[in-house]
């Protein structure tokens, strides 16, 4: 990926904040930034509708924290979320901003590892790549209820043993967020402030690769086919069951089946357009959006946007672009063709892998 000089200040360092819906991503960022504009959820349904950058000054280092909508979202598909993450990573790499790492939040009060949590973890691994696990902070949230401390500690142990082991062996560190601004700052301070991480997904996307050819894009496709297959098997089982078992057994089983069938059907419905959306060269698309963002800001204020404003604009464009997908050919084809190559002098600037 070549860095392009858009004459936008790029001294802020980016940090991605990921995690399931309700894990407390926005809450964590709000504590860290003391910015009451960061919207935190009140109901069970998902709150953050699209990724958004938030600025924070941590011990003199300017951070750009990217709040993302969670997986298992009631509104957005896995594809939407992962494409927004890719868009922010593409923006950061194109501008030559430094990426310090990823903060992955997990709600310790959630009693079981749902399918969406396992999918999300797998996507995290594929986005980051094992060589960068040391730049990941695994953070558990919502430790407030003191009476359940032992139960939560046991759960944290299970997480570390059964789900996070490979990440931790690769260098990812675990932390507990105690809910305060001080605790959030102490966690962020654990990031390597000198790092300039290039994630596995960023390496894959450089060179105009379509998103569906990346490891995470392929994984999202496979998850869909697997769930479709499970749904087909369940409907066969349910048909056979009606023919062979007693009425009581049959009704208990079919109630369990229909509950899990509904979850799977919802997943398939929300991801129906994902394969179309993922047929996109996100790096090319993001360059186009950066240019548009600069032009729009100049028209409005006669000035170039800050990195945060440009990022916000690009993420808004990303979100509405993927929302606009309906059945039929992907609209990106027409816009990508109008993409103009980067200026000659900006090419061949190496994208530094690691400062340490
Ligand atoms: N007690 C406690 N509550 C928390 C903590 N983190 C988040 N919450 C609460 O959990 C709810 C969801 O938090 P959000 O920050 O909106 O969750 P999110 O991960 O941004 O969710 P999405 O935007 O839907 O992806 C809110 O009511 C928060 O007040 C925490 O560490 N402790
Ligand atoms: Mg949120």
From TrEMBL:
Transmembrane segments: none annotated. It comes from Knufia fluminis. Residues 232-260 are annotated as: Disordered. Residues 15-75 form the G domain. InterPro entries: GTP-bd, P-loop_NTPase, Sigma_54_int_dom_ATP-bd_1. Residues 243-260 have a biased composition (Low complexity). GO terms for molecular function: GTP binding. This is G domain-containing protein. Pfam families: MMR_HSR1. Residues 232-242 have a biased composition (Basic and acidic residues).
